[in-house]
Amino acid sequence: DAGVIQSPRHEVTEMGQEVTLRCKPISGHDYLFWYRQTMMRGLELLIYFNNNVPIDDSGMPEDRFSAKMPNASFSTLKIQPSEPRDSAVYFCASSFGGPLHFGNGTRLTVT
Amino acid sequence: DAKTTQPTSMDCAEGRAANLPCNHSTISGNEYVYWYRQIHSQGPQYIIHGLKNNETNEMASLIITEDRKSSTLILPHATLRDTAVYYCIALGSSNTGKLIFGQGTTLQVKP
Q1: By the CB < 8 Å criterion, does B43 face chain A?
Q2: Mean pLDDT per 10-residue run, chain B (111 residues)?
Q3: Which residues in chain B touch residue A104, judged by CB atoms under 8 angstroms apart?
Q4: Whole-angstrom Cα distance, residue A89 to residue B57?
């Protein structure tokens, strides 16, 4: 079991650029979650999917953020255009309705 | 889901038991108590969960009071690698695993 795989581990980009974060959930898991962590706000749930369908996106900060899950083994979180306040660690997690399994995150820095 | 309250920080001597308390006085009958931890620079890691009865696994023990208004996570023989932020979360059985994280307890295990 390779666990939840996120890429890239680190991303540095300039303000205004598009950023795409990727996640491969654990095989067989039907729930996928995107979280964001900052010092100020802690861990925040952005969006989650069930069977590739977005169920709750109420945590998505604004229209600049979008998430997709085209199939059961892949999801993306896109920020366009990026802003310095988007700098954070973004975590993906998956489950089959039980405890969540988290990836090791993508550290995003927007300059 | 019920709000939980945890101390901001705790210390523990290496080799001793670490007892991490959590208050959840408004927990409802169908809400489980979940514990996760986050070691620096890693994604949160599931530890244990329970409803009414005490639970034990290879990582820890969970003691839930009879009135279910509080619980204690016990790491029986803390090591330096147990230094982490520990999160206590109340989660309804009908919930899909959508975890809402608080600030947690920072446990420092000292030699």
Answers
A1: yes
A2: 91 97 92 95 95 94 96 97 96 74 95 96
A3: 41-43
A4: 30
